[in-house]
Design brief:
This protein has helices spanning about 30-35, 75-90, 170-180, 215-230, 270-275; strands at about 5-10, 15-20, 45-50, 60-65, 70, 95-100, 100-105, 115, 150-155, 155-160, 190-195, 200-205, 210-215, 235-240, 245-250, 255-260, 265-270. The protein is α+β, with helices and mostly antiparallel strands. It has two domains: about 5-120 and about 260-275, Roll (Diaminopimelate Epimerase, Chain A, domain 1), CATH 3.10.310; about 150-250, Diaminopimelate Epimerase, Chain A, domain 1. The chain has a 17-stranded mixed β-sheet that branches. Strand 6 and strand 7 (about 100-105) form a beta hairpin.
Length: about 280
């Protein structure tokens, strides 16, 4: 087995290891994904991305969490992959197939990249939740002073808690328990959001299968959708996250548009022992 090249990329600090398997097959297993994602013994990342051939789009983007599970959506990964495909194709846009469906990415001003994350799913069965409920006001209180989340699916399940001060929340302590609560049969991404005086939203996220991350694109979309449904913001807002700022517009046609920066941190080669099952 030969060493395989990869890219280390990030979108607002949400970092990814990207392998291109469109020309040569790369066998990826949950165990190998866990090894590569490990920040001490592997390369380290929030998600591992494998690009595969697609009949429906310019590439298929397979997403592995650090625990080896697959995710149906990742907004910042889609923007990073979009930047790669756009540069390679010599166009201003591209199409990316995911488990959730086909996404469109396009170049934006100032070197930013926008991805159309599709139409949010708001029904309890679509998210999914364990029982019928009003997803705008979910009767769920997982900790003292924490209640009434909004639940949304962006191709992955999200629960958004609006709090007075997101920075005061002990995310590492609360996130794991809420992620695995029986209310979420497929687990969930857990967001803690507070409104800033300038109209932006401070957002901190515990990601399903990944833990606390510097930024989360699908959570940013879910939060703006949730805030808009609650009447807290109009249909667009900036999300101030630990790794940087993302912008989301919930367009009149129902699609959530995510915009933000992308960067290549470094390139490298994964040695054969790291890729062994």
């Amino acid at each position: 087995m030969q060493a395989i090249p990869f890219l280390k990329m990030h979108g607002a600090g949400n970092d990814f290891v990207v392998f291109d398997a469109r020309q040569a097959l790369i066998t990826m297993t949950p165990a190998v994904a866990r090894k590569i994602a490990d920040r001490r013994f592997g390369v380290g990342c929030d998600q591992l991305i494998v690009l595969e051939p697609s009949r429906e789009a310019d590439a298929f983007m397979r997403i592995y969490n650090p625990d080896g599970s697959e995710s149906g959506a990742c907004g910042n990964a889609a923007r990073c992959v979009g930047a790669l495909l756009i540069a390679g194709l010599g166009r201003n846009d591209c199409r990316i197939e995911t488990l959730f469906g086909v996404l469109t990415a396009q170049s934006a001003a100032d070197g930013l990249v926008t991805v159309d994350m599709g139409v949010p799913q708001l029904d309890w069965q679509q998210i999914p939740l364990a029982h019928a409920t009003d997803t705008l006001h979910v009767d769920f209180s997982p900790a003292p002073g924490l209640s009434d989340p909004v639940c949304v699916s962006m191709g992955n399940p999200h629960a958004v808690f609006f709090v007075a001060d997101a920075d005061a929340i002990d995310v590492p302590a609360l996130g794991p328990a809420i992620e695995h609560d029986p209310l979420f049969p497929q687990r969930a991404n857990i967001s803690f959001a507070s409104l800033n005086e300038d109209g932006s939203i401070r957002l901190r996220v515990w990601e399903r299968g990944a833990g606390m991350t510097q930024a989360c694109g699908s959570a940013a979309c879910a939060t703006v959708v949730a805030a808009s449904r609650r009447g807290l913001v109009d249909r667009s807002a900036k999300l101030v996250m630990d790794g940087g700022t993302l912008s989301v517009t919930w367009a009149p046609d129902g699609h959530a548009m995510l915009t933000g920066p992308v960067a290549v941190a470094f390139t490298g080669f994964a040695p054969p022992d790291l890729l062994a099952a």
